[in-house]
């Protein structure tokens, strides 16, 4: 059997379920997930290899109207990916009404010759007749190469999505070793795990205002010491992250430590600090240090 490989971009509006679908297709956790919009800030790769194929999924930040430099960099990452892949998965939340954000994405898609799959997500929440009507409406809006309803949460139709995708791939090169599932450094994955726990435990403006910076790691034979800073924009936010008598910070530390032990397969000693960095989302140096913006000297 011929070996096939290729690159797939997952795009869509915030909260469409892109990261959940990536984790489902990978059959393991690659991207952090929360119910907060714009959870994904970086372009994240998941590498799925079986006996006859290697599919590199690229999870992109949700396309949105940016309010700061961080938002502009997130959109830039999504736009750039559209022209460097073999297939685009346009993920749509089936429970949300069609709106200006969807029209904006469709206009973007018209500028690329790349085959586009419409992935209608969250079908587990729809009745059959409603789904049929929705599929018909979407088919009139753009000439999709494929229209595939799925549930990223329950994995409904995920196997069919993989099989259809393989039919569109033509490369025969294996880009990554069989056992590699992502191409991000450990420090990035550590920071994302900690940020996910903050997102899950906080509300209101906090999720969008925080970032996590791994300041130092020291690895011994079977354990690792991690020092990480949670960045916020205001003193009031720092108080929320720390919590009464340090309760919130301790809960973040506990949940993150459990997942990091599983991820790194060793004992973890995590030390968290909370720092106020006013307006960090508009500060180029901070965005570079956090990995959200490329240093112009490296371009």
For the record, the CATH class of the largest domain is Alpha Beta
- Distance between the first and last residues' Cα: 40 Å
Radius of gyration: 20 Å
The strands making up the biggest β-sheet line up spatially as: 2-3-1-4-5-6
Structural class: alpha/beta
CATH architecture of the largest domain: 3-Layer(aba) Sandwich
| Low-pLDDT sequence parts | 36-42, 63-71, 295-299
Number of helices: 10
Give the H and E element order: EHEEHEHEHEHHHEEHHEH
Q: How would you name the CATH homologous superfamily of the largest domain?
A: P-loop containing nucleotide triphosphate hydrolases
Major sheet? 6 strands, mixed
Number of strands: 9
Could you walk me through the main structural features you see in this protein, from its secondary elements to its overall organization?
By secondary structure, the protein is α/β, with parallel strands linked by helices. The chain has helices spanning 18-26, 69-81, 100-109, 128-139, 158-166, 186-201, 206-209, 235-242, 247-264, 284-289, and strands at 4-12, 44-49, 53-59, 87-93, 116-121, 146-149, 211-219, 223-232, 267-276. The strands form 2 sheets. Strands 2-3-1-4-5-6 form a 6-stranded mixed sheet, with helices on both faces. Strand 5, helix 4 (128-139) and strand 6 (146-149) form a beta-alpha-beta unit. The longest helix has 18 residues, at 247-264. It is globular and about 55 Å long. Residues 36-42, 63-71 and 295-299 have low confidence and may be disordered.
